Amino acid sequence: MLKLKYLFNNVDLAEMLLGNWEYDKQSLDMFEYYRISSNAIYPFQSQGKTQLLRFSPRTEKYKENILAELDFISYLRSKRYGVLEAVVSRNGEKLLEMQTPWGDYFASVFKRVSGVQINKTDLSNKVIFSYGKALGKLHQLSSEYKPSKNKRWSYSDVLNWIHNILVDFPDEKSALKETRLLQDYFSSIPMTKNNFGLIHYDFEYDNVFYDEESKSCNVIDFDDSMYHWYVMDIEQSLESLQDCSLPEKFQQKKQCFLDGYRTEFEIPDDMMSLIPACRRFANLYGYVRVLRSIEDKWNHEPEWLVDLRANLTEAMKDESLCFGKEIE
């Protein structure tokens, strides 16, 4: 997520950035439905259709990663995969780098996808099967994908980034040990076209929309995509599915998801043994991102920020429970 100082609503900044795209001026009241986490997202309309302005400080992102994300989305759309669509600016660009009074920012605009978020459906077998099928198809297409220019970072790059962040936190010895454990563990795992490639990473229920009309899913938010073992996406999806399923029904929903997945792509059974390590990776990555985000503190913070900091700190405790322990 972004550093806490970037989580404040800034309508003037959003409007300044949006000026580079076509938009309906009367729709700017939709800005009140903004949200900010890893990016700032401000909804608006263009010719009566809802679109989303996404922006972030240049210091928080790598330009090549964003360009590679946009390239991958274009590839998926060319294969008729259900995915969001980037909108070109008035100057014909999908990614803008802008100087503003608040610093330099990256900005893009996307069309809203059709359907409803998975967790807002009835979670029927039909929906869960489609959810799994969408991930399997994504991995099948990823296994054939060869970036022409820009390339997303890999799990190894992420672990190096984590290590570099932790250097500035000398008390985080267990997190640093966890980083080394994961580096050693994953370095021993074979990479093949069938088990490793560009993954979504955040294929959770709020980023996948089920469209009743087409009986298929549409996917958004590739901001965290990276090169990793495909089972990483499976683990993240199942963890998300468990959060929105009744405990007594989860195993059946899990099987339904995997059945849908396997209609599009197959991963060797031995790859499922990576799931515990993938959970450890997700916990460490989430922990360090929050650690970096909440580092700065100010006097007389607004109540919402105090509460957010407390909630994030509590979540970090859960994520760090296994740090430094042997990976199963």
From TrEMBL:
Top-rank lineage group of the source organism: Bacteria
- What molecular function terms (GO) are annotated for this protein? amino acid kinase activity
Query: Which Pfam families does this one have?
Result: APH (PF01636)
Q: Please give the InterPro entries that the UniProt record associates with this protein.
A: Aminoglycoside_PTrfase, Kinase-like_dom_sf, Pseudomonas-type_ThrB
Query: Where does the Aminoglycoside phosphotransferase domain lie?
Result: 45-234
Q: What family does this chain come from, according to its entry?
A: Belongs to the pseudomonas-type ThrB family.
**Protein name, UniProt field:** Aminoglycoside phosphotransferase domain-containing protein
